[in-house]
Task: structure prediction
Amino acid sequence: MRPPLNIAIVTPRLQLFEAVEAIGAHTYQLTPDAPAPDVLVFPAGTSKVFMESVRAARDLPAAVRKRAAEGKLRVVIDGSSEGAEHWPVRAEHIHSIIANVGVTADKAFYVGQEVNYGREYSAWCAEEGIPEQFRVLHHDAWVWRFLQQFEDSGAEVLSRRLAAFRARPAVRSRRLVSLNYTPRPHKVLFLLRLLKDGLWDKAFVSFGGVARYREIFGCADNAAMTEHLAKLEGFADMAHDLADQLPGLEAFGRVVLDPPVQGKFDPHLDADLPEYAQSWFAVVSETEMHPRPSRITEKAMKALVNFEPFLVLGNPHVLKAIRGHGFETFGEVFDEAYDEVLDPRQRFDLVYEQVRRFALMSDAELAAMERQVTDRLMHNAEWGLTRMSGDLRRAAFSALIDKILEA
Result:
């Protein structure tokens, strides 16, 4: 049993130590009169938040610098809320934070979602002749943040959803659920394919809207949006072929499944969607489709805790990562070979062809598919709602803190 741990947060931004009281840690905002911390956290998700931390490191309380000089302080640069890749300028800024705090590199940690970060950072250090390196820890922040919401309610939610699953009708109004609220290029292309192939009405879809896409990516009109979509490597022909579907997609506007009665809609949280009971499978659209393994987010968790088998439009090895967390995927009914394919276009086509095939199946055929994977669906819901949300999440955070304190 470790002694109580003080974790000070330098700027009031999203960071991974938000809910660690249960494992004997106390988090608080760093102020001039705050207790001397054991761990000092610099939030570093977005570029804006990261640069706030870079500036904050130049002006720290004397008690913090004293603790650093005594070798009693650990520093965490927390980039786990985003999927930032290694970039030399970012690494240089991290080194400047470490130097300004006054700790040695072996007592500093960068935490992120990107699985390649440590390897690429080490290669850069070797190339630049940098002998002292900060340590890199991998953390699937959004997986754990999503499941945390069930820590107290998981057993009750499982019982209710299991009963609802067993009561699902034999004939369902649509075939699939696909949540695409935050517009991304591959998500838009997927939705345009559904429209072109006449499958839109076979899917329950959420989507932030064409107007929101143009706002995010600075596209003046649909023609500019088509050219932006065409810049996605390997998808230029598809983007131009589907350009005539953009007005139809734009006409739907912003589509939200089960919006909240009050408050702001948060796509990162669970939604107990009635649409799951009226569909047979899910298409999980991850944040990006890189040509290499990269990260997973909370998006697949939504299907896993809602008794829905799924295909994923995401990075290579995303299914492998999901299984690594103890869940089961659905190789009995889907061809999951796409998970090993590095080329994003080939991976997209392999997934979409299965979406199309299953979307055109009869209810009887899809009911047989569901029966085949029922045990897996039940395992996944129980595992996510009652195990990973509680004991396993606390154990993962405890192990993360142990690695930091061992330095």
Q: What stands out?
A: The first helix runs from residue 47 to 56. The two ends are 18 Å apart (CA to CA).
